[in-house]
Write a structure and sequence with these properties.
Elements lengths: L7 H9 L18 E6 L2 E5 L4 E6 L2 E5 L7 H11 L4 E5 L11 H5 L8 E5 L1 H11 L1 H12 L15 E3 L2 E6 L2 E7 L8 E5 L4 E5 L19 H12 L5 E4 L5 E2 L1 H27 L4 H7 L4 H4 L11 H13 L14 H12 L2 H13 L3 H14 L4 H17 L3 H16 L9
Length: 427
């Protein structure tokens, strides 16, 4: 979270009960300093951009996630202030780079104390893919988080032990269960410690509407994610540690959060499939499907990172492929050619740009975005067009709640503000 939390469990109660607005404490924004809390005897929690759980038992330390590459040093220092117990095992809940950066720091403490890294078998495939697409992922992070330059690692601490469905570990004599379900990723692990009634969800719970439609990332799995949430909800956990945001205490509260998130996803899946089965195009699905109002208003299901219409697009890709059902888009003309033709018909790119500005002033930002982009594609060096495009997408950025939409629209705004000599043009 963005502010220091003296009592994270009490803080989560206040969020769930609506006493604190979730929008003021965004759980998935880049942050500066991390902090440490002992949630129960032997259970340490590092509140970082991606959280880390440390379980100490029988003189050994288990890490559930290991911190991101940027925050790994902070995570290491905070845990070492708490305990000197050797880290024998680290579990990656998935291979996203904000969760897998810190193991080498613990291994460097003792030349003979190698950490056994355990993860689902697909984490290895993810790391291989990341090494091949580091440039693309760097641009995504730059666009999504407003970074000044692309930033993405190319070296990873690969797992030593992998599993396919379920795996039991032992940490100082304590049984720790690992379970695989697809959701935000295809390589996800959630962790259950029966004796401690401790559930570590990874990014299957992140205090916002499920991140299941990210427009710049690989396939995600809403139906299986919902099933995983219901599976976890049935355990009777007394302490839940999510991948982002504060921990939650109390079986009833935990069950409520997990089951409502499951119902949210299930509704989006069923509505989308119903329309697809009736022959609808993607456009109709995107502009029709909505989460139930009683779920959409819950504090932990706000579209602050991802949002429902992106989940609908992801479902279309999962069940229907990449084509949207519009015959003109199956084998389209180059975008710049179409834009040039429309600009000529309208009387010039400036006409399109001025109409875009008028639509934006009237509040029709979606249509304004189309016309501003067409104008920029038709006349990318025109100062008036660039100014209008920057203004329209700046307005779009301000109007959005999800970090993903704000990131993309802000990127477009900065492209046009940079001028023709900027690093990237609108095409």
């Amino acid at each position: 979270m963005n502010d220091p939390i003296d009592d994270p469990i009490e803080f989560s109660r206040r969020l769930i009960d609506g006493e604190v607005p979730i929008g003021d404490h965004h759980p998935v924004l880049p942050r500066g300093e991390s902090s440490f809390h002992e949630l129960a005897p032997g259970i340490g929690w590092v509140d970082s951009f991606a959280n880390v759980v440390a379980l100490e038992h029988g003189g050994e330390l288990l890490l559930v996630d290991a911190g991101g590459f940027i925050h790994a040093g902070q995570v290491h220092r905070l845990l070492r202030r708490w305990t000197s117990a050797p880290v024998r095992t680290a579990v990656y809940t998935h291979g996203h780079v904000d969760h897998v950066g810190g193991v080498p720091l613990f291994e460097a403490e003792d030349a003979n104390g190698a950490v056994e890294v355990v993860a689902h078998e697909r984490v290895t495939d993810r790391f291989d893919r990341y090494r091949r697409t580091a440039g693309y992922n760097g641009v995504i992070n730059q666009r999504q988080f407003g970074l000044a330059a692309p930033l993405f690692p190319t070296e990873f601490r690969y797992p030593d032990t992998t599993y396919r469905r379920d795996l039991d570990l032992e940490v100082g004599g304590l049984r720790v269960e690992l379970h695989h379900d697809r959701g935000e990723t295809d390589d996800h692990t959630w962790v259950w410690v029966p004796e401690r009634r401790l559930l570590c969800t990874g990014d299957l719970m992140i205090w916002v509407a499920p991140n299941c439609g990210n427009p710049q990332k690989a396939q995600r799995y809403p139906a299986e994610w919902a099933a995983a949430l219901r599976r976890m909800a049935g355990l009777g956990a007394e302490l839940l540690c999510p991948g982002h945001g504060p921990p939650i205490a109390g079986a009833e509260r935990i069950e409520r959060v997990l089951t409502t998130a499951a119902a949210y996803l299930e509704s989006l899946v069923e509505q989308t499939l119903e329309l697809m089965n009736a022959g609808a195009r993607l456009d109709e699905c995107v502009h029709t499907v909505r989460p139930p109002a009683e779920l959409a208003e819950l504090p932990w299901l706000q579209p602050l990172y991802d949002e429902p219409e992106f989940v609908v697009r992801n479902l279309w890709r999962l069940y229907g492929g990449w084509w949207d059902g519009n015959p003109a888009t199956l084998k389209p003309a180059p975008e710049a050619h179409l834009a040039g033709e429309l600009a000529e018909l309208a009387g010039g790119a400036g006409v399109l740009a001025r109409r875009a500005a008028a639509l934006a002033a009237d509040g029709d930002l979606r249509l304004a975005g189309h016309l501003a982009e067409l104008a920029a594609l038709a006349a990318p060096d025109d100062p008036e067009v660039r100014e209008v495009r920057a203004g329209v997408f700046g307005a779009r950025r301000e109007a959005e709640s999800s970090l993903m939409a704000r990131g993309v629209f802000g990127w477009a705004e900065r492209e046009s503000t940079a001028g023709p000599e900027g690093p990237e043009g609108p095409g």
